[in-house]
Design brief:
Blueprint (H helix, E strand, L loop, with lengths): L2 H6 L31 H34 L7 H42 L2 H28 L1 H7 L5 H16 L1 H16 L4 H23 L9 H25 L16 H33 L3 H37 L3 H35 L5 H33 L3 H26 L3 H26 L9
Length: 491
Amino acid sequence: MATSEKDRLRTALDRLPDGVPDTDNGQLKVSKELPKGVTNRELYSDIVRIAWPSFVELILTQLASMIDLMMVGSIGGAAHPELGAKALSAVGLTTQPKFLLMTAFIAMNTGVTALVARDKGTGDKERANLVVRQGLLFTFVVTILLSILGIVFARQLVLFMGSTEEDVTTWAVQYLQIQMAGFLTMALTSTITASLRGVGDSRSSMFYNLIANVINVIFNWLLIYGNLGFPKLGVAGASLATVIGQVVAFVIASCIILKGNGFLKLELKKGFLPDFAALSHLMQIGIPAMVEQLLMRAGIMIFTKMVAGLGTTAYAAHQICMNIQALSFMTGQAFAVSSTTLMGQSLGKKRSDMAQAYCTRTRRIGMMCAMGLAVLFLFCGGGIVALYNKDPDIIHMGRIVLLIVAAVQPLQTSQFIIAGGLRGAGDTRSTAIITFVTVLLIRPVMAAVMMYGFHFGLYGAWIGVACDQLLRSILVLMRYQSGKWKTIKLR
């Protein structure tokens, strides 16, 4: 890679001297003072440089997902919107089982990013590349096993999620089994992405994911509707199109990591034999993150089953709003990439003062973007829902739900960014505990009270989501402000 490309990965942190464990005079509480030797402009520049490719990538990925659902939702056409509602429900029933099966490698990827970021801070290329190889090894072995489980038990998973109509169940099983067949390439790509983000390279993942999304949309058009002589596969075609895009992304990502970016380079000749010390360090971060993900998925699955019991129309509206809300996640997640990367690198350099400076300013930018999304949902919610399905009941319910989504935008984005910073510091245990309290307890309990006690139906379920986001935001902020993440040792 050219020198200019190496320079592109440098931050203001790189030119500062290493700190010492008490670089902030031993104070655990977060300080508002600007570190000596840097300016606000430099900090914001580093944050945006890492965040904007992730933002573009995540937004366009979610837009592709939205187009995917819009195409699925139009299967019956204007004459038979009920078929589109069933198709949407079928895809929605597979979402949580798929995310549940993704838990293991998503959690380990948290460890990959945190450790690679620390190694980038210390300048230890050899150790960083060892982490990458061990992460890929773990992902490969675990994903093979999970893929088999997902294919074999696809029907049971769909039924567990609350499917009650046989044609919806059949479509959902087809969709999930195809996803599981392509699970490995998606998982390995995500580990490569986690590695690149650890060194601040978010442009590469933007590049290959954008190409994958374009291919996904093209094959959606070909395979869902049977255009240009391709078979008309409906819901199954949408799933197959996603897998084709994922395979392309994996091929490009593999080429990038094999070529190297100046700090990371996957050298196949060094092999993939287990290094138990490196795996242990990964698991030190990954296991709490896995517990967090499992708790989150368990809570969301309970929540989703409750909503599925409201009927096909309400569940279709819910699925549409979940998909739209996921678009709003992208702002928080994109800036969380900056927070994770820069905090990890800062702590690797023993500059906790820089870590908190980056995190605080990342949160400010993210919340400003969240306010813009809140205004969009407030005034354009009904029109956005209508893009998915023309059923008046679905549009009405979706519009009301998006008002709730608009209200929680600033809290949601702040929570994503601070939690990302805590994970970059290796503080995954606290986020796991917070997730247990909020997603597994508060969300389903409050949703049940509002749905059944106050008879608010779908709206009550989303009030439960708002309560979850409020409390989670408060608890995550309290943990960050305590400064205890500064003392965590990863090796």
